[in-house]
Write a structure and sequence with these properties.
Strand content: under 5%
Number of helices: 3
Structural class: mainly alpha
Number of domains: 1
Helix content: 40-55%
Strand order of the largest sheet: 1-2
Shape: elongated
Number of strands: 2
Distance between the termini: 32 Å
Radius of gyration: 19 Å
Length: 133
């Protein structure tokens, strides 16, 4: 449990979940190919971040639904429908953008928890994992 908490804490700080180094983002939407500290390749395989996109959409839409229902319940029987409509449009467009880097680092942390990195996933590793020293 402590390893999981450590990896997720590092991920939520937008640091490399493996070592805590960083920064691993060059901009809000641009991650580096590898951690500048430990050299872990951040995209572990082709199409790797498809899971991160799923996490992003799930968390963003769950946040939207919880917020919508909360405002609806707190203001019942006269909810501010116009405010809810405009707020919904803004939230659905904005939440995934705000959560983007977090979803990538959290996905990497969850993956590292399930599948610890191997030597060939680091910057200085040989291209062919069978040629390890």
């Amino acid at each position: 449990m402590t390893r999981a908490l450590l990896l997720l804490t590092r991920a939520l700080r937008l640091r490399c979940p493996a070592c805590g180094g960083g920064p691993i983002f060059g901009g809000w939407f641009q991650s580096r190919p590898e951690c500048p500290r430990c050299g872990l390749r951040l995209e572990r395989e082709e199409g790797y971040y498809l899971g991160a996109m799923l996490v992003n959409v799930l968390v963003a839409e769950l946040g939207f639904v919880v917020g919508f229902v909360l405002v609806l319940v707190l203001t019942w029987p006269n909810p501010p429908w116009r405010l809810l409509t405009i707020g919904s449009l803004v939230a659905v467009a904005l939440f995934p953008l705000l959560l983007y880097p977090f979803s990538r680092t959290v996905w990497l942390a969850l993956d590292l928890l399930a599948h610890p990195p191997e030597r060939h996933e680091y910057r200085d590793a040989p291209a062919d994992p069978r040629r390890l020293p």
